[in-house]
Amino acid sequence: MNLRGIVAVSGRPGLFKLVGQNKAGYVLEGLDAQKVKIVANISTTKLASLEDITVYGEDEDLKLVDVLANIAAAKGNVPDAKADGATLKTFFEEVAPGHDTEKVYTSDMKKIVTWFHLLKDLPLFTEQPAEATAADVAKPEEKTDKKPKAAAKPSNAKAPSKTAQPAKKANMTSKKGV
Q: What one-character DSSP code corresponds to residue 104?
């Protein structure tokens, strides 16, 4: 399962695909039917990649990727996110054995089931996680002693005027004389 680039945004329902980044923030596209594109502010918005999310476990935390894979294997038994708490708890005992029943709330279970229903139609469950290949690993190690070429100056950039430099010097000398 490959969940790279799929994020949950704090304060917004649903899941988003990280499309890019600009000066204002992250460019996100909704995974729902509307495909809404938003720009989430870098400084105020918290993004959580689904690859990095874990579920509280009794001994050790369970990766969300593994829980979603178990839900996908359960095929026809997946309840609706609006199901009652008892149904979700018994379902989670099957798909996430060893989860901490005191720390994992029914609302968390509903959120994970909702996310599964958003992701089940996408080809994410058949894709393999992106792993570094030998060629990708070799590229960063191949460093040369060559200096990078100087960047070309944009054509709309103004050259510093010759009069500006002597004026600065004049100000500096006048300060010394005072």
A: S
